[in-house]
Every structure is written in structure tokens, then in C-alpha cells.
Amino acid sequence: MKNTLLALFVLSTLALNAQTTPGSSILCGNEIFSKIVREQYPELQAAFDATFEEARIPRATDRNPLTVNVVVHVVWKNPEENLDDSIVLDQIAVLNADYNRLNADTANLRPLFQPVAGNAGIHFNLAGIVRVQTTKEFEINPFGSNLLSELKHSAQGGSDAWDNEQYLNIWVCKIQPITFGGAVLGQILGFAFPPNNLDNWPPNNGAPNPEEDGVAIDYRVFGSNNPNFVEIPGGTGNLMVRGRTPVHEVGHYFGLRHIWGDGGIFGPNDCDQTDGVDDTPYANSQSQFDCDTTRNSCNNNEVFYNADVPDLIENFMDYSSEDCMNMFTQGQVEIMRNVLQGPRSGLLMPVGTQHIAGQNIDFTLSPNPASDLFALKFNLPEKTNITLRLLNTAGQSHGTLSSEYYPAGAHQINLDASALTPGLYFVEMRTEHEVNVQKLVVKRG
Ligand SMILES: [Zn+2]
Predict the structure, then answer these.
(1) Which of 248, 326, 333 is nearest to 63 (CA)?
(2) Dist. CA 251 → ligand 1 center (Å)
(3) DSSP state, 292?
(4) Choosing a second label site near 268 at 20 to 30 A (CA), which of 86, 161, 182, 355?
């Protein structure tokens, strides 16, 4: 299996280079990941495929804003990799703009595609920044199936994830170039695991660990105000960086595929490969980090448009210049929102809630999941006025559970979930200064 992988990688990299620039290539790690999974972990690939097909099914189109908690792990060896807080905050702002179609460059989208542009309505709440100094160097090794595993474990020189089901973990580090026999074959800018519907990933020996779920980004392409740079292979200058690589990778994390259907580097460059989204026109391969609006790699009649239309180089899931990317389509938005309300629903927070990690009065809910009676327990250092509310995923209140002064000490409030429709809820505890939120899952049977 590994020999096949190696041969394919080298051959297709050479093919890509031959078509485009001399030297090495720049790419997103999902192509390598997809290749490894398809060959080595068919059970996991089947889980990804099933989740994707499920997410494509049209659903009631509520437009509630969805809020996701994010933790950024800055894992650095050299000082320039220890990105300043201002760069992290800028990247969160770029995510919030691009996922709410508030980016200033939406007007650059060609008129043909304006009607299909979508607003994902997804908000990113920075819950924490973790900084880890390391001596390790991190690489994606397509020949040995190393998918940045060490980056995600403190004991191995990386940083342990915060609960992967409740937080979008973004690790930022220097991703080492892919080399073979001393020659640089390529540079991966980022990598994300797609969602699956399993409670846990299949326990295949060597399969990715669920604790590694999240997004990894090279430190040079994080934030639009990043002072570092990536040279374009072939000496044609530096890569344009506008914070769109994380936008692209988070798109993968929410279930999206590349617009050219991943025929690209590992598969045949043909126009039959699809990304499973109707309103992204067919493309036979990726853009080359440029802004070529004449690009029309598949001269076919697009059923959705009832015409032959050019490649959608403005899409975040292409490899065009970050200056030219400015949109997701409505079809892509549908998939991401379905994933966020399906297999990744644990990430959601009630709208408007700021979870400030480490600054809250902790409380516990047990049992959780609950079917009927459950207990809410907390411990107060002093007399405190506490308001408890039950919210749904849209942030709508199902009522105030309690609002009164509690004396210092341990407390238990017994509550009943038997009247609630099964699903995901939030219990919100407010004091004069703080808000804490815990998820409550209601299950029957
Ligand atoms: Zn990608």
C-alpha cells in the first residue's frame, strides 16, 4: 500500500510541476490525507462519505446564526512562529467576515456568480489561545502516514486539544516541507479532518486519533497581518496571504471538498470529478494561486447554470490567490450548516454567549445525557446572585430555571428533562460578572 502511495505521489507531483511552475508545489494536506485514507482506512473513508451524503440532503433552511468556540494553539520553535495575539485576533476576524459574507471584497465576485453566493452565518468565538514552546519539527509525511500527530499531543512536543467535540481546535506551527531524497517536493499550508458520523473513529491500528480532530495551519499563512511569508516555487514572488488558508481549511473541517472534485494532484485531471455541490461549476484541476478569470478548464454545459461557465476561482475551496477568493456558494453553505447541526453540533454555543474559559463558576450536570431527572451542582466562594436558563441551539430560551441569591458553599438543584424534545440544549449560568454554559443532551430510551 505504501509503495503505491509513494509512487503515485511522486508521479503526480511531477505531473503538477510539469504543468505549472518548476520546482516544488504548494498544496492543502487534504489531498494527501484523502489518498492515505482511501488506501489504508476504507472504513473511515466510508464514514466520511456517508456523512457527506447526509449533509447534502436539503433541509429546512433556518437562518439562525451558529456560534462555534475556537481555541488556537500556537506551537512554536523559532520566535517568528510565536505569533502575536493581534495576528490571532485578526484571523478570527477574517473567519467571521468570510463566513458571514461581510468581507469587503464580495463586490469583486463576477456578476454571473453573484446569485449563487451564500452567507454561512457561522460565528467564531475565540475561547482561548494556548502557547507551547517546542523543540519538535512537524511534518506531514505522505510516505509514512504521519498526519501531524505529534503537534496535537503535549507529551510529544505539541499541544493537547481542548475537548474536540466542543471546540474547534486550530493548531498553528511551522509545517516542514515534504522532501524526498533531499529534494523539496512540496509545502503544505494547512490540513483539516473532515467530519464523520461515528461516535468515535474506527479503532484501526494507525488510524487518526479522535483527539487530533481539528485544523492545522502553517504559521506563515495565519492572519492577514502576518509579517512572515511563503515563497512561490520557481522564484516568482511570495504567496498572497489574506487569512484565507484557515478559511479554506475550516471549510474542509465543516465538510467541504475542493471545487475541482479532487481529481487534481492524485487523480485524473478530468471534468467528471465532482465536489458534490451543484452550484460550483466543474473544474478539471485547481487554480495555480493566481487570479485567472479566463480559466475555464471544463468546456461542458453546466446543468445548474444551463450554460458553459468559467471556473469559480473566487471560491474559498479553490487554490486561487487569496486576493481573488471571496465566497462560498449556497450549496456549500447548506453542507456546512448541516454538518454543524449534525455530526459537529457539539461545537455550537447559544447565540450571543461568550464562554470565557477559566473565568467562570463551574457547574456540573449529571447524568448527561439525561432522560428525566438530572442534578445541577455548583460551589460558591461567596454569596452570589445566580440566574440559570435553558437555551436551544438557536439561543432561544426555554425558560428561567432559577434566579436568586445562593449562600457560599455547595449547592444542588434537581431538574426534570422529561418534557423536553430529545436533542441538544444549553444550561446557562449567569452571575453579575460571568456567564458559563454547559451542554445538556436529552435522550430517551
Ligand atoms: Zn484544501
Answers:
(1) 333
(2) 8
(3) -
(4) 182
DSSP 80-96: GGS--HHHHHHHHHHHH
Q: 259 alpha carbon to ligand 1 midpoint, in Å?
A: 9
Catalytic site residues? 249
The one-letter amino acid code at 249 reads: E
- Percent of the chain whose predicted confidence (pLDDT) is above 70: 86
Whole-number Å distance, alpha carbon 330 to ligand 1 midpoint, is 19
Contacts of 11 (CB under 8 A, 6+ apart): none
d(Cα 73, Cα 162) in Å, to the nearest integer?
A: 10
Higher pLDDT among residues 444 and 277, named by residue = 277
pLDDT of residue 352: 52
Which residue, 161, 158, 149, 154, is CA-closest to 71? 161
Distance (Å) of CA 349 to CA 141, 261, 316, 375, 376? 35, 32, 25, 21, 19
pTM: 0.80
Query: Of 249, 260, 251, 275, whose CA–CA distance to 333 is shortest?
Result: 251
- Residues in the 5 Å CB sphere of ion ligand 1: 28, 30
**CA distances in angstroms from 236 to 23, 107, 231, 233, 239, listed in the order given:** 11, 28, 8, 7, 9
Residue 41 has pLDDT above 50, yes or no: yes
Domains of the chain are: 2-346 (3.40.390.10), 359-442 (2.60.40.1930)
Query: What mean pLDDT is predicted for residues 76-81?
Result: 98
pLDDT digits (tens, 9 = 90+) for 328-337: 999 999 999 9
Instruction: Identify which of 175, 215, 212, 78 has the alpha carbon closest to the alpha carbon of residue 134.
Output: 78
**How far away, in angstroms, is 249 Cα from ligand 1 center?**
6
Rounded Cα distance, 436 and 388, in Å: 10
In whole angstroms, give the CA distance from residue 192 to residue 102: 24
Q: E strand or H helix at 26, and its extent?
A: strand 25-28
- Using DSSP, state whether 117 is helix, strand or coil: strand
| CA 25 / ligand 1 centre spacing (Å) | 14
Inter-helix orientation angle 2-19/30-40, to 10°: 150
The per-residue pLDDT for range 114-150, each reduced to its tens digit, is 999 999 999 999 989 999 999 999 988 766 667 899 9
**What is d(CA 395, CA 211) in angstroms, rounded to the nearest whole number?**
28
CB-count burial class (<10 Å; 0-12, 13-18, 19+) for 159: buried
